[in-house]
């Protein structure tokens, strides 16, 4: 019985094929590799109805994931996060059909668990002894936890400004952790140098290995399944390294090729912080890729990525879906975070809050008319960011 229909890896720039049974990084031209599947075989071997009867984890889509054998799956129960209607917030923003997919309920509290689960599973299956990555915090925490679950080592480097809770998650999971006085690019330089000195380690930096995006794409599968195997009109996503929006676009494209959805794909919206908005700037200029963003900084630390390796893939996804890119200020996203909690009782991360600020902006500009079904991705739980809520309480 087929567990995975993975056939090969493909260069995202040239289309060149690479062997999926070997540990791979980027392509010969330095571009991300994308996993490809025998979709005809998948369509002939499984139905949507069969998938709906499986356990409520992301591994229900295993034919479209890269792990070859069920016994090599490394899992903490990740996947099938709730898709919540937000009627009060929707009325406030002028978009009554507003929904939120809440990734804050995943292991380690963020969507990073998806990429770590699939990436670690495949790395361990291919014989990797350790994984190494730079991180703004949450990815490192997730990969450290899943590496511990798999029984392999992890090497993590993160900026000093990363949330302290993510340091604790790495440390308690047994990761080898280094703090860098700088941004994620500076942490990346440390990791690149260190991996060369360690036998059996793989650099799993964002889009420098092929399988993190495969875990993230399951958000797209789940949204479609949770809506009764149909698509919403718009999907709004906080964008730093871009893996999530690239993955969702990949998932939607695969589902259409399978014949499981039809019609136009949802318009995709990439949301960035005004203090670090290279993809927004490139989109507004009609550029094919971004330029490094100088003096980057935002309270939405998870999307503070001055230059993303896969920026061109994000821009392609926006173009192919008639989507757009939006920058929001820290003041706007923090106000949205508070407004959402008061209206709906949900405490989202600052990156997710930025998406609600973007919805407000897009409605005011007329890009959203108010008739659309809009799904916002909240990528993490707000309780990992206590510093975003000033506590001015009376003492009795």
Which tags fit this structure?
single chain; 396 residues; alpha/beta; Rossmann fold; 6-stranded mixed beta sheet; 4-stranded parallel beta sheet; 13 strands; globular
Explain what this protein looks like in three dimensions:
With 396 residues, this protein is of the alpha/beta class. It has a domain at 83-109 and 212-388: Rossmann fold (3-Layer(aba) Sandwich), CATH 3.40.50.1100. 37% of the residues lie in helices and 16% in strands. The chain has helices at residues 39-45, 48-52, 87-93, 112-125, 138-150, 164-172, 184-195, 212-216, 218-226, 243-258, 278-285, 311-320, 330-344, 350-365, and strands at residues 6-11, 17-18, 33-37, 83-85, 97-102, 130-134, 153-159, 176-180, 201-203, 234-238, 267-273, 324-328, 373-378. The strands form 3 sheets. It has a 6-stranded mixed β-sheet, with helices on both faces. Strand 10 (234-238), helix 10 and strand 11 (267-273) form a beta-alpha-beta unit.
Describe what is shown at a glance.
With 396 residues, this protein is α/β, with parallel strands linked by helices. The chain has a domain at 83-109 and 212-388: Rossmann fold (3-Layer(aba) Sandwich), CATH 3.40.50. The protein has 14 helices and 13 strands.
